[in-house]
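Sharing a chain and its predicted structure for anyone who wants a worked example. Both blocks are below, sequence first, tokens second.
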Amino acid sequence: MSGGFDEFVAGELAEIREQGLWKEEWPIAGRQGPEIRVRGRAAPVLNFCANNYLGLSGHPELLAAAHRALDEWGYGLSSVRFICGTQELHLELERRIAAFLGMEDAILFAACFDANGGVFEPLLGERDAIVTDRLNHASIIDGVRLCKARRFLYGHADMGDLRAKLEEARDSRHRLLVTDGVFSMDGDVAPLAEICDLAERHGAQVLVDDSHATGFMGATGRGTPEHCGVSGRVDLITTTFGKALGGASGGCIAGSRATIDLLRQRSRPYLFSNTLPPVVCGATLRALELLSETTELRDRLEANTRLFRERMVEAGFEIRPGVHPIVPIMFSRFAPEDAPLAQRFARALLDEGIFVKGFFHPVVPRGASRIRVQLSAAHTEGQIATAIAAFTKVGRSLGVVAA
């Protein structure tokens, strides 16, 4: 590359560091779990920032299922689905995840990022409209950009603004209303009952990205539609296997059989990406079996979430209210020094044996930096108590809570 471009890149990197926005990676030495080893540290630390909501990432039943799938179905397909990359294992997972989500059919992708990248362009064109929440996940934003449909952004969870945008788009052939089921930075749940009411009133379809809900939100873990009482009223669900369902990779779109058939014919990430590895399919199938047998894990996660939220409020921390195991510990009142503070706080917690990460611009808006804690069903009450004690100690030393 030319010297001018190299200088530009170096300047951009220097600016990121100077602003206190550099994102550090702390490699873990071993498998994922509530207790992990971090490279360069002798003692293990407690992990409170993984998407391992149900503790299935290292579950022995999933590991055994992955080994069986590897032995029977091989390591990879070296192909896309429609050429020679479809195994009975993939078809079975599509049937099972569709049934779990209450849909007619499903289509697999390498990740939910790919699912969101491949869902809009095949279904909507210039005569159509997408009405989307301003805080939707980056994968939705990128997927919408690939589509020629008109775009209407409504204020986050603002039903009045949503109504106005649906009316503004009323001359469109088709209207698709798109929202995260749970928003990943704040852990707030979309008001799906109101959203479905508005969609039905205006003749619009509803798509929900339920990545941070599948497997544990709702009485039986069927996600935000179950949690919000709108099962059967959502037209399309995109979700991931890389969080609560084992934490490896893979995702899907679930919906009507006709819609899924059309996506098989036209969705570019599906048509031009290698097939999901058999080991992921086998382990995900076993995860779905476990969740269909008992709600023990989601019940334990719910209890852990309630305990942590209550104790952190009692300790004096500012947290975003809610019921989700994403618990943002906010540093908003320290702006504009909130981003460096969040990073210092996370590093100090690591010294206390707690692995969490600071989130700051551009991942969240300026002035809204936070530590995003994520609870797991695998956490014990003792581990949660240890984490709260460490938070309190560091919070007092940094002036975040009263001494």
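Comments welcome. The chain is about 40% helix and 15% strand.
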